[in-house]
Amino acid sequence: MDLKKFKHRTYRKKKGLIKFLKKLDKVVPVDMPKLVKEEDARMWTQVDCMTCANCCKTMTPTFTPADIKRISTHLSMTPAAFKDRWLLKEADTGDWVNKSQPCQFLVDNKCSIYEVRPKDCAEFPHHNKKPFDLYTDTFIQNIDKCPATFMLVENLEKRIKKEYVW
Question: The pTM is what?
Answer without folding.
Answer: 0.88
